[in-house]
Amino acid sequence: MKIIVLIYLLSLGIFSSLLFQNKTKKESIKAGSEIYQDFCLQCHLSSGIGVFGVFPPLKASDYLLENTNLSIAGIKYGLRGKIIVNNEEYDGIMLRQGLDNEEVADVMNYILNEWGNKTSAFITPNQVSKISKSILE
Amino acid sequence: MNYFLNFTCCVFFVTMGCAQENYPAIETPSAINYSFELVVDGIDIPWGMDFINESDLLVTELSGTLYRVSDGIKKVVLGLPEVYLRGQGGLLDVALHPEFKNNNLIYLTLASSLGDNPGGNTSLYQATLVGNNLEKVSLLYKASPNTKKGQHFGSRIAFDEKGHIYFSVGDRGNRDQNPQDISRDGGKVYRLNLDGSIPEDNPFLSSPKAKQAIFSYGHRNPQGMTVHPYTGVIWVNEHGPKGGDEINKLESGKNFGWPIITYGINYSGTPITDKTSSPKMEQPFYYWVPSIAPSGMAFSTSDVYKDWKNNLFVGSLKFEYLERLVIEGNKVVKREKILDKIGRVRNVKQGPDGYLYVGVEGKGIIKIMPL
Fold it and tell me: Which pLDDT score, from 0 to 100, does residue B292 have?
């Protein structure tokens, strides 16, 4: 009997850790903030305002807030060529930063909810994994 | 009252002015006495380059491609070791062995994930260039441990006249542990013999725990390195924190202070240290306030340009120009913008023809011609 209870408890533990390995939105945003310091801040700045005409803003960026999937693709695969952000044209290069799907999801959740940005969407690694490069073309 | 206000404003702006820019102030030349030509196009981030002869050169693209360019035509060189792409890391510098004409050897620095821990760190490779292929690719040095941090891989390569190769590794985003600890990699400039062995007079051979390849330490992220044409001393420029970019003249075993002393502050505006000097640490030869984000460094030693002989040239990623520094005695006496607004300048070298070649992000390689 003891053994059965033990097995039951163990499998419950394994099961729930499998089920709940996904972070909450809050945890994801926190992890994303660290990714941001490491990989994005040097261009988009800690204030998220970027450098006018050179590095586009993330704060109140219509591109980011209205094109979630394109933004994910840009971070995942790199982005180049002309884009319009808040009526200003940018024609720069952002290299692929080498982040895995979970890291892309985390940093997206961070930039979508920082500097006054707000979204109800919660980006998951699974959603990131489904985004293909072709949507950028 | 008005007078008083004006006066305080003046004092305020004068003091701000001092804090804003380190002497000498950057100048924009009134007359432009050069033109330029794009000699290699279509390279996103031309990180490193070196010249095989007057018409052939090797160029690295950060995202992991090595090109051999002949008369402006790019061909991909095959046989590269695996490159770890992460943040600022990727395929970094390339340099020909000083006896390349006889042995066809080249050196590369790149981010690599070799080793146990997840992540990557900077490595130095040697290989033989045969046509557009690399053969006998061998790893000469791999910094450890690996880390998933995206910052500060370094890395430039330079040679002295005594048969040594130097290369830099940045602090890898771990300033509290790496730069001041000679038993750890990162925040260092390394010196090896050309075959990768440790020189017998390297400074830390008698410290059992030290990494024996270390030549100097206390660096943050050196991305420019060249040998002074007359003194043979290795000069380095490095990205500092906000307001702390530096030029350093290297000496064996010396500590350049990061992060114990610096003229810069955190990018968030908070202080890192209140110390700009310490008796056991070296002062920079020059420091930039504001930061220009320096990358690449070369002396012009030819007679191609009228007034530029022996001037130092440094790329500015941040302000998108090439900086010309005039040095007299032991001081920078003049700074000037060349190729203003050209794009993020990643690299600069003097070619075998005496012209300056500049790597510009989003463009490729630009050659500067006197008018």
Answer: 96
